[in-house]
Amino acid sequence: xxxxxxxxxxxxxxxxxxxxxxxxxxxxxxxxxxxxxxxxxxxxxxxxxxxxxxxxxxxxxxxxxxxxxxxxxxxxxxxxxxxxxxxxxxxxxxxxxxxxxxxxxxxxxxxxxxxxxxxxxxxxxxxxxxxxxxxxxxxxxxxxxxxxxxxxxxxxxxxxxxxxxxxxxxxxxxxxxxxxxxxxxxxxxxxxxxxxxxxxxxxxxxxxxxxxxxxxxxxxxxxxxxxxxxxxxxxxxxxxxxxxxxxxxxxxxxxxxxxxxxxxxxxxxxxxxxxxxxxxxxxxxxxxxxxxxxxxxxxxxxxxxxxxxxxxxxxxxxxxxxxxxxxxxxxxxxxxxxxxxxxxxxxxxxxxxxxxxxxxxxxx
Length: 364
What we know:
By secondary structure, the protein is α/β, with parallel strands linked by helices. It contains ten helices and 13 strands.
């Protein structure tokens, strides 16, 4: 792939020099030689400003489980675009190491990273091999400790786009900025591109499309029922008038282009307090409300719950005491209604997920 990057200021400066030299009252021979010399310099500038990029590379960072076909469908989608697809790289460390090992005289213009993540948990991607999952804190710690390899400067340019095909990543600006830090070289800073929408691969009507998510939560195993949940989600999103919420909550797939449907997530929270060197007695609880009141009174525990952006009452809480440790576990279920993005005019079809479209993707 070739992309012409013209150094406009330098080129215009040289053109002005040519004009100045050709306007001098020297001999025609001197003028001619000077013109030829400046034209040669101009050609050299233009030649250096032309970057020949490598074919885009795509990292498939996971494997499908159960009935999911996310990764297989993404693999087929990018193979049909004749991109170079790389499998078996499940960490930031492995991705950077692979790019360094396969560096050439031509940098990458596009690097795609496909990851099917739960928006309420860490990314389904490791920081380092067999390390913790990618969160802002975990990735920054790996960077600070020097556990990630430094990307070679000839692998990318400042115009290289690292495009993440994940769910709602752009909504987490801190994580996007930290991911960008992981791919900075000694003298190059690439652009990181992500979408605030859901990425769906292998749909019935499109191989790849984006969808707007809407959420309603309830304590796992204690659903109030679809009727009450449809009323709750309608109240939560009063500006959305086009979705029949009850029908959407009962629909598991897109049966026609643009039809809203629902996917389900489980969101666990684990909270621990060590009473080994504490003068306080380990509390015992009888009811859910007692556990929630206790969490609300412990600042560090409450912060962990707030990281999920889910109200504490939407979890089903249990606890155990083990070796002078109080271990509290919360489980929430999320029903996510996905509304595929479709064109507002013309034939009914999905909006093309173009990473250059600023309405669909954010760039850092």
